Amino acid sequence: MRIPNTGEISNVWIFVGVMTYSMYAYMEAFINKKQKAWITAHVHMYKFFGRVIKILVPDNCTTTVNHQRSDWYTQALNTTYHEMAEH
Description:
Elements: E1 13-19, E2 24-30, H1 35-49, E3 65-66, E4 76-77, H2 79-86
Antiparallel strand pairs: 1-2, 3-4
């Protein structure tokens, strides 16, 4: 991504949210994948779609999933992300 003020090229993380079956997609670039950016991306996605969805299926990124559990198949969601999804 090119920084508008300086023209400097910087690496970014791309958030992609897709409405299942319609393939209606929302994409946004962030300079990091920290929790604030991740939650902000979701809020912007919901505004873009004009609604929230009943089922949210995140990928296995470290901002979403608590990787401290030993069982790969029963991982827990990050508390703040879980609260955002419940809201």
